[in-house]
């Protein structure tokens, strides 16, 4: 879409000027004819007048907006709708204030489609970044006349989801940094420090112990083939990441991480927290349980848990209660199942699911803390043992020589 400047004549014969967004010259003429304006001059923007950021977004060269941007947009829209500001006017105000160019372009398109007669939820469905959960809740808010309340719930939901993901990332980042730095130190020792000892040992002409010779051989191998090893490592990482994201690899990977000794419990807890909060938010918003389960299965990242949610949906469709479906999941705690049962019996399932989500979030925090406390010393211990082993192996001949000389 491009902003054109134009000059024309209206139906009264009066000269009018203006600027409008259109795909091309022909599209602009069609727009002006719809306003009973006969265009006389049309001028496309020069390179200097073009908005480079918007051009990059519209041509797919810019990064999409993130969850933080979506939370900010949702909060602002919630406040304005709650204050009685019309949707189009609210979108226009947010558009002018928005800093992220990808979000800015999305808001612009949404406003254009809403102005063209589409509902807000339908307009959002046409944009990347507004998933099925988001759009269905907006649709429920529009239908029930509680759009401001739904937007507020969405903002809170997205914030909690983002907080859990950030906690997992931050918990893993420090051990990973330690492991990477330690690996680099070991590599530098083997490729630069060990060869210095080799020269000293050759000059002394003494016999080299087995462990020392093994370290020397590893050092020589890395020194001769480091570029091949580095290239193979990069290729292996890229191929593995692509495989994990593929339709074939992701289900296998998801099952694998769920069964990992330390990380598996964290993955399960965080996914269950997301699942229960999603269900609670949707049921509170007036979405039926079956539809909520369907949407929940689509927005759950772990394919194994998403498959289980789809199975739960089928069970509910067959007339079974939610707790009967949940009880078949081996990783779903019995105590939490009982809470769901109470929620169904008292008619407060949505509130109970929100409480369960809070419980899972606390357990996720505990799992993150426990994993971090175990990983950090374990990594340091392993790296320290490797470094110490290298140093002992290289100094061992010197100690042996000194011991022999003293005898």
Defining key terms:
Ubiquitin-like (UB roll); 75% helix; Receptor-associated Protein; 3-stranded antiparallel β-sheet; 4 domains; 407 residues; mainly alpha
Percent range of helical residues: over 70%
Percent range for β-strand residues: 5-15%
Compute the separation of the termini in Å: 89 Å
Principal-axes shape call:
flat
Low-confidence stretches: none
How do the SSEs run, as a string of H and E?
EEHEHHHHHHHHHHHHHHH
- For the secondary structure, the number of strands is 3
Tell me about the largest β-sheet.
Answer: 3 strands, antiparallel
Rg result: 31 Å
**Alpha-beta content class:** mainly alpha
Number of domains: 4
pLDDT average, as an integer? 82
